[in-house]
TrEMBL record:
EC category name: transferase
EC number: 2.7.4.1
GO cellular component, one term: polyphosphate kinase complex
Keywords on record: ATP-binding, Kinase, Nucleotide-binding, Phosphoprotein, Transferase
The protein, known as: ATP-polyphosphate phosphotransferase
Domain Polyphosphate kinase N-terminal per the UniProt entry, residue ranges: 5-111
Organism: human gut metagenome
Domain Polyphosphate kinase middle, first and last residues per copy: 121-291
GO molecular function annotation: ATP binding; polyphosphate kinase activity
GO annotation, biological process: polyphosphate biosynthetic process
A Pfam family: PP_kinase_N
Amino acid sequence: MEYTYNNRELSWLSFNERVLQEAQDRSVPLLSRLQFLGIVSNNQDEFFKVRIANLIRLTRTGRQGSRQLLGGYTPADLLAEVSRQAERAQARFAETYRGLLREMEAEGIFVVDETGLTPHQQEFCRTYFASVVSPRLVPLMLRKSVRIPFLPDGNAYLGVRMDCTGGTSVRYAVIQVPVSSACPRFVVLPSEPGRRDVIFLDDIIRLMIDEIFFMFSYDTISAHTFKIMRDAELTIDDDVSKSLFERIAEGVESRRYGSPIRLIYDRDMPADLLDMLARKLKLSNPGMLAPGDRYHLM
């Protein structure tokens, strides 16, 4: 008897699509739909860090594996198909997010950026930046001849580009968006009666970007969000001198330091800044670079 084998990776993408459908369902409460979007994003991150990282390793080593186990695909073909489907899922995710923003506005909740602040809100953001955000910022300058410091995954970053007129001098930097319980990603702003304004922490940093890099001379400066995913496959060595618990603990710890396998970036990021990040992270395959929206929620 012959059995039809459904590829695990493609089946998983279909499952996450089903979760996304819950976020699109208008019969589901608005807050729950936002939570479903968060679940979709977290699922996608873990999928790439484990399953896709394994496919990348198989492709790099030239090991073909069993076509039967991969549903008739070679590792390279499966990686290409997963990348195509993930790109389409990214577009649907962004469309769903924008739709939820419109529904939030109908309920009096507005997500504003640094260009849409009132003078009072600007002053609030400057004070908040000085007291809460600035002490947690550690800007990293990028230089072509210097290795990039280790950037943990699971964080949002801002890639910064500073240049003089005519491009005679260009500087690059990276800022980790310092999200924590004391410094949340979303900040509630002083608002007019009948509405609630919220701003991303990213945009407070953008508002104050000139103050962060005051020591440099430049004509224009821009900051674009990106997110890194690292190989997080759990590997347990066979050292019999260690207990199973010790080996598992070491394997879990090593997941934090895997090689970069994907870079999601703001599609408006300048090409030279994207190229600098890709080279520093050693992401040579274009399939490892995924354009996204301004805030990279997925």
